[in-house]
Amino acid sequence: MKTLTVALPGREYDILIQRGLLSQAGEYIRAAVPRAVKLAVVTDSNVGPLYSGTVLDSLRSAGFETALFTVPAGEKSKNPSQLAQLWEGFMEFGLTRTDGVVALGGGVVGDLTGFAAATILRGVALVQIPTTLLAQVDSSVGGKVAVDLKAGKNLAGAFYQPRLVLMDPDVLNTLDLPQFIDGMAEVIKYGCIWDAEFFDFLAARPSKPELMADIGHILYTCCDIKRQVVMKDELDTGLRMVLNFGHTLGHAYELAGRYVEWSHGEAVAAGMCAAAKLGVALSVTPPEVPQKIEAALGSLGQVTWISCSMEEYAAAIGLDKKGAGADITLILLDKIGHAVPCKMPRVRLLEQLEALPDR
Ligand code: GLY
Question: Which helix (H) or strand (E) holds 278?
């Protein structure tokens, strides 16, 4: 078992990583939430048929009373009306303030369920059991929970830390290759912003079988980096911004593709490549870095370039929650393994984007 502790004052929790962990979920949740009698388990229509049986059996063996809530798979479920349905369902189940909620699924289930747990009865215990690579290395750790609004993604949300995160690498065996590669964009991001040795380790393993052979180490390293960042800046007022490397431009690509043409991972991958080129143009990033990132992503079959009009860039930059006032803070690399926030006027960023070499 690999264990990481997110040591936040008064809200400390463990991330447990081990193959086969789903079938032991009950005993670990019992230890983390000792007073709970009832657990509401939320999953989606893809993950439920695969894993809810194992998890529910384990929870019942540990003495919990359970109810399963299954939402349709996909980003569309991350909305206020689905959230309200969960609230009503939790109340019909008879959930009390000492009980808990379990999120069993990818990022959509984790974000939606996390926000439901944060708000029902002014907050009940939350356990995250992420089942995609993206959710394991990013959204299940750090406490960002949200639903989407018509005006944009993640606009209604909270910081709400889980009591426990259970990560079973075996669930990635059933994850299809595009979703796995999608998650790898975030994995490679951690190497780019924090750990050059980890970047090289990943670049030397350009296939799912090679990466799965070391998946415990990969999950541990990503979660350890995220944990360190979150412990220093839980509420995203400074350092946590480095996790957004590739995301500001990625947001532009997601918008340009109306959120259907490009997945989050593809948009972030292309966003990291473009940010590396921008960094070179701004004399922040060494010239060899873009090619190294493109090679690491490209050898996995990941996207490294997405075309985007200036209007789309402008819209994305203007609306970006991470921006403040007239200036925008873009995350750049001053070397592989180290990120630096660069504040600049939005118009200057647009000019730089216009000058980027097209491919
Ligand atoms: N996904 C970025 C963060 O958790 O801050």
Answer: helix 264-281
DSSP 36: -
Contact yes or no for 100/126 (Cβ under 8 A): yes
pTM assigned to the model: 0.95
Between the CA of 172 and the centroid of ligand 1 the distance, in Å, is 21
Please list the rounded mean pLDDT of every run of 10 residues in the chain (359 residues).
Answer: 97 97 98 98 98 98 98 96 98 98 98 98 98 98 96 93 98 95 98 98 97 98 98 96 96 88 96 97 97 98 92 75 68 98 90 82
Q: Tell me if 240 CB under 6 Å of ligand 1.
A: yes
* Cβ contact 274:314 at 8 Å: no
CA distances from residue 207 to 188, 213, 214, 246, 298 in whole angstroms, order as listed = 13, 10, 11, 22, 11
Q: Give the pLDDT confidence score for residue 14 in this predicted structure.
A: 98
Instruction: Give the Å distance between the CA of 295 and the centre of ligand 1.
Output: 25
Confirm or reject: Cβ of 138 under 6 Å from ligand 1. Answer: yes
Nearest protein Cα to ligand 1, atom 3: 243
pLDDT computed for residue 347 by the predictor: 85
Structure tokens at 298: 């490209």
Helices marked H in 42-176 — which ranges? Answer: 47, 53-61, 80-93, 107-119, 133-134
Of the candidates 114, 113, 106, the residue with the CA atom closest to the CA atom of residue 74:
106
Is the CB of residue 187 less than 8 Å from the CB of residue 239?
no
3-state secondary structure of 337: coil
Q: 244: buried, middle or exposed (CB in 10 Å: 19+, 13-18, 0-12)?
A: buried
Q: Where are the beta strands (DSSP E) in the chain?
A: 2-6, 13-17, 38-44, 65-71, 100-105, 125-130, 144-149, 152-159, 164-167, 327-335, 338-345
